[in-house]
Specification:
280 residues, alpha+beta, Jelly Rolls, Nuclear Transport Factor 2, Chain: A, 6-stranded mixed β-sheet, 4 helices, 18 strands, elongated, disordered N terminus
Length: 280
Amino acid sequence: MTHVLHVRVRNGIDDLMKYPRVVATPDGESHFEDIGVPLEVAQVVPGRPATESGPPIATSAATLLRIAAGWEATWHPMPKHWFCVTLAGEMECTTSDGETRRFGPGSIYFLDDTTGKGHHSHVVGNADWIGVGVDLAQTKTDSANDKAIVARFVEQVTNQGHFEVFDELVASDFVLHSGLLGEVRGREAYKQMALSASNACPDPHATIEDLLGAQAHTVVVRLRYRGTDTGGFVRGYPATGKPFEFGAMYIWRVIDGKLSELRHEADRVRLLQQLGILSE
């Protein structure tokens, strides 16, 4: 069955337009829900007949898309909050509760499952899917809140060692991508890695030199790390007892008030040289 834009008319005013939303639940699953948007009569074009419109939705970009027939994306959460509009072809989406819906020409749907298991997508039929993906804008308040969460993690966890706030700040399905530390999946695995680093360096201090909010709930941080290697700070090497200082770049994603993903690059060469592991 193909789901298209649905409007219920009630005497020409306060009509209700509905569109489906894919939403993630706290337990990591996903499901469809139908969102109703009230419409009101509005003068959109001066001097012309009135139209019906809903409240404005703040967006930041629109991307024209062509996806080949037969394309399939297995279970995945969205990297950003995305409205999709089908112009041609048909897209099939399945949520983790087993419900499947198809979206043909003229349909609009909202992919809002940025955490958890996500959904499964498939272009059905012999025709390519052609459409538009529209990014929702991140407000200044959202950006400020996201930056505050990152700054709190750096100060309370990294600098002060208050690991009791770890679960409050980090999502259960957290993922770390790091050239220095490798890939770590899950909050508990990341916590154990952070605890090991803290035990190997009793006096860590990270100074935030730049803290920038970007689109799609992304926070970019430039840090300066200082500390002393008393317990084998670099994996695979014994403790050196030497102080170190190096720079690092962090790109955090913050979803629903929690740190959900981190891409991390550090000046590994400088660190190894200071510890005498690598000759200058």
